[in-house]
Write a structure and sequence with these properties.
Six copies of one chain form a homohexamer. Chain A has 290 residues and is mainly alpha-helical. In chain A, strands 2-3 form a two-stranded parallel sheet. In chain A, helix 4 (53-80) packs antiparallel against helix 10 and helix 9 packs antiparallel against helix 10 (176-205). Helix content of chain A is 45%, strand content 3%. Chain A is built from ten helices and three strands, in the order E-H-H-H-H-H-H-H-H-H-H-E-E.
Chain lengths: 290, 290, 290, 290, 290, 290
């Protein structure tokens, strides 16, 4: 069960409203790599967790923290929308020079073009659970497979993509209040990248899984011949230069082999067989009338 | 530019049709971690790549290979649908004992209930670009951020989740033909997990990025105080036991600190300010009529 | 069966084209609370209705009317797009002062930035069934549960959210033709809010349902102890001041009770049990090799 | 900021696993009217709230409680999946009589047909944030308009549709553990229907809004003539019998008027005007070659 | 404006309820090629039409007719759900032999597995605007480009895919009532295929467009060299045998040319250029610290 | 299996970067009628094809070619984003006159408003598999029914809508490099419209299908009376003037009949029957308490 305290984890107050930046900031609220995604991902991984308690507990610690991040960014967006673009534009529109230049277009429309119109029409000046193009958050961004190594690898990714996006957003504003909040979130992403990398090390040290995930699947069932071959299927040969093309494999049980001119191993494709004629597909040959 | 040879990368022929299994196999064709996802992800990462040529070339090598995997699974599904469930069911329905037991329900419906009905009605016995619940593949599964470390971490994840799902599917069938194909795909996923791990090592050795991603963002701009703290936001203290709670951090520049009873650092939340009254939101206090 | 007359329910002609406003107006055509949503919701409620005829008939009366509203707004948008933003921009671009100021950016792009580009590229100057950010209308906006009290409550909501959005859009334009049409739609939303409130009263008077919906579910099956408790799960105690925290409940059968410091009633969460090992989830403890 | 206690709000333990019921229960976890929807809706309404503190506080109290409901149902589903349908089916499949009857179809497939295959392949025996047909939860289910009367009406609807669905699910199982949890949730929905009805009364008593929402929009701007007319657009005249067709309107300022044979008020539709020829639409008349 | 008569265009009454078939029939109600799609497509094409009146009028005639088809199928589905699968299953479950065979699984679950669970939990026995896998109808199925030849070609397709699906559904049932309704719909699809083919002929006869669409785009602006070449990019040479590989082209202005071993015409791909370093992408070479 | 050569099918290099045009160009990359759609559609039609080899081979030839088109447009977009809109805007913002006119709004925001913000925040200057409003490509754009006549008709449509959109985009830019690439794509669309029209002729000549699709469904099963009637369901009588209203039908087996005042043929709609009371729908009449 959850409880909320009436204090933010960190500040979330811009120096000035900015409806255009509000739209961009939506990306790290309701976008694929935004805070809702990590909140939901970690909570579902925790609730579904069947591993030792330290893992479950750790996952839910961070999952709960992420709700606070969602709260901060949502509040920041709501405050960025407190200005009145409509009124500001009306003032500006009185400038006849501009009006003339734009040939009748209202300047308001030009300025507000950078806004998400739903910030005015739908949410009335509030944050929305959508990304920077207005696409709504979808639960397909929630990853919880039951296999913690596969999932922790996702979590490292999420904190990497997330920190990357927040860093980009930091560079897109000069507002000290926004930057203050983002510097906190960036630091937490630093922590969480480290945290998940440490968790992967712990999981492997505990012998619970390893590369190739899932370790518990018998290696005898896979086709060993092709398990360490690099197939060069695209023109150019620069790919031969990397670590992935020669030397021992990271899983410690193989050697990379480079196939410069790979050949298919499967059958030459003939036509498929027929299906039930009542599906009215186009058959290989003419059929007598039914 | 691309060319296709009329031979499969590996075999894709089941011993017998099985429309119910065809539905399940859709998950690794058109699901979130299926072959279309890695095909599109790698191709877009390659086309957008601005890094040294060995990376771009390597990414496009594997991206091109994945098209062949899509082809194999699509063909396998088409062949699994070659049986006529309608006819089979009609034969079965003649068995009066069963008819009696089911109290009037047609056995056909029971058997075919496990099928994806769109395999009959929409595709007429062909594979569809959707997952095992019929949800269509969406390009939100394509990840290409321009930052290769963030993306390679995603790629390791994708090959981990993908291998996990194929291993599960392997256990869900006894058909030797299906298992033959899956054993090939599992081995390629073994290769590709290793490949991306090696690529991460190469990228870090080349100094192009490091933890915390993105390295190029100045660490001075982030709030160092909270960059290595573990916040225990959920009941239980087992999370104190893991590597993520003490000792050096994987990025080599910090020490984990465990906060057992974390306190918020932000403001006590007061109400938000007002927005333009023409948005007709509910205000803090009664307003005179407009 | 349906018939159409070649006359609009009301006027739908702007004084002047305005492609930027056209984008915003899409919200009440193809948005969540737009006219397509109420059209489809009422039609499906009507077609699925198993209640007395007066309800079915009334629902289909308004469902049929809503098709006319869709028609009006679609036409208005098509007319707002009759101007040629391309040509207008070209004229404007000849103004060298502006060109210099914008440092090479084409003014056309700036102006047209406020448009939905699909209004040019996809629909060729026609309305699209999407909202103001271009997200396509989805049938998840259609609500028809088979329970009319639950649905009529939705309908009141839809007419409230819809009127709210149209009022916001009214304030965002000065065009007399647009305002004329919106004043008609706002009035119809006034009617329909009243209509659905009256329908709720009628339904309760007829004894067909009541709070808590669904009345037909036996109250003995629910856990009466917690049916009227307010749980204060978030910091702050202002919530104690409202009607929802004390006094008789609207359903007439209880008294609100305020729990200022609620405690969980469920079990302390231990780890979950195991699943089939062939799912390759991370287990609670090391398992012998399979 | 949020904290989590390691105890459930109420019990969430079935008497026995049941993967088929697990699929159905997903509806009230990740469906349109499920617990994630109300959790997100109330949290966003609270974070965006600019109204008096008692409203904001109350909304966040219930929003925080709803996270606990999500947790309970997710856990229940994870437990319902602990059984091994694969093993059970294998046992059953040994029964040769059945095998014969089914004419080669594996019984496993028939039984498991009722499962969501993603519960095995994707989540490995865990809950997923999707509904009973596997459609992922989408943030379009989150409603927060900035106008509390419009939103509270939605909230009453959500608790009505939600209680309706949980009652239906209650009737679809005999498992005492599931029914125990559902009886708690049904009671909370009873509370919350009452709570939002009380909140609407409070909001109107405080004079912050009223029917027709939004009250702050001047009635003079709407077309008064049609604000209380019932238009009978569909055959049948039973709709004349209801309260919505005569008598005073619920907003207290009008009288319902019944239009039995309504006539359009708008223009006879002529063809639309032309658009820019560079859009290559089909014109009204042949144009000279460009 | 629209009016509805209280009589169906044709009958929509099954001989007996059948919840499993109801799920399948959803495909032609709310699927990609179902009746909602053609209804919305034709209405939007009509409302957006700027061509001579005979086209606009014809499009709206058929668009209006399609609403009646939606109504018929929705009603058919609602009637197919009138049976009580719960009660039927309970009767069946009393059969102890079955219970023993199924090893504890409830037969009800097996039978009902073929249903869409939302038909019970969400719509309470009513039709839903979704397809046969429960995916909601989306407005991306609505095609209206402003160019009638492009759109009429889509319409021929829609009536072809639609008739194909209805024919498949006809073969999947023996119910005389369902077949009666489907025989009507199939005939109308026959008409509408013919109608759109005739409309294409008329449009071309009127000189309003032609192959290649859009005719109004100057042929001089396209690269004539490659406008009639068949590129054989996939192994096999059977494609040389078809009409598309030699002889005059259908547009009457060219000859097909077969390129058996096509070569790329573009540049050899070098790496892309750099982007703004504040986007933190991976660069081609190490950069000095910022 | 597929191979890639490190050379483009044709050039894909703009004369100058243009992030605003990049957004528009996304429409023909990841939009409904963009290159990803035809690539996936043709590949799936080919992989699922059960018709004579010349069809399968031809479909896969073009499907493979389309991957090259996706590659070209993705590369073009990546190059259009190479400019630094941030830097450009900063330069421009130094112009104090503009700053004054815009009343404090940053010009950067105005210019960049026309960009897709995800081109900066998400892809870091790369193409994304989405359309011009940022809506991600979805596999519902992939059409493969198993019936080639139905599908080839779709393919003609796709090449028509696609050519139309590329022609519109051609008119929206003056950049010679972009126009060069588009002139190639337009020519290929000319070829492909002709190709599919020829394929339809071939298919009919081979007797594999005909109007009305599917030919194999017995005409006796459809309701012949209504198979050639035009129903005038919308006001206006101009529709009587077209070829669709009189004369022989294109399928060669009927005569169009015009019904100016069509009457419904179905039953007068009474209320529906009841469903299981445990679904708690609103019944036709009061029921005794359960």
């Amino acid at each position: 069960m959850f409880f909320r305290t009436n204090q933010f984890q960190y500040n979330a107050r811009p120096e000035a409203p900015d409806p255009v930046y509000a739209r961009k900031l939506q990306e790290v609220l309701g976008g694929q790599w935004g805070e809702i995604s990590v909140m939901m991902t970690y909570l579902f991984q925790g609730w579904n967790c069947r591993a030792p308690a330290k893992y479950r507990d750790m996952i839910l610690d961070i999952g709960t923290e992420e709700i606070a991040h969602v709260e901060m960014i949502a509040t920041m967006i709501a405050r960025l929308l407190e200005s009145s673009p409509v009124e500001a534009a009306e003032e500006a529109a009185k400038n006849s020079a501009v009006g003339a230049i734009l040939g009748g277009s209202r300047l308001e429309d030009v300025i507000v073009a950078g806004m998400n119109p739903q910030h005015a029409i739908v949410s009335g000046g509030g944050a929305v659970p959508a990304d920077s193009v207005g696409y709504p958050w979808t639960a397909r961004y929630t990853i919880a497979s039951g296999n913690l190594l596969a999932d922790f690898r996702f979590n490292v990714t999420a904190e990497s993509q997330g920190r990357l996006q927040v860093c980009r957003l930091y560079e897109l504003t000069d507002d000290p209040g926004i930057r203050d909040m983002l510097s906190f979130l960036i630091a937490r992403d630093t922590m969480h990248q480290n945290q998940w990398l440490a968790a992967i090390a712990e999981l492997e040290a505990d012998g619970l899984d390893a590369t190739p995930v899932p370790k518990a699947f018998s290696r005898e069932k896979e086709m060993g011949d092709v398990a360490y071959q690099f197939w060069d299927c695209s023109g150019g040969s620069e790919s031969r230069e990397g670590r992935w093309a020669s030397g021992p494999t990271p899983d410690g049980t193989g050697e990379f082999v480079y196939l410069g001119k790979p050949s298919p191993l499967g059958e030459v494709v003939e036509c498929l067989g027929p299906v039930d004629p009542r599906l009215f597909g186009t058959p290989k040959a003419l059929q007598p009338p039914t």
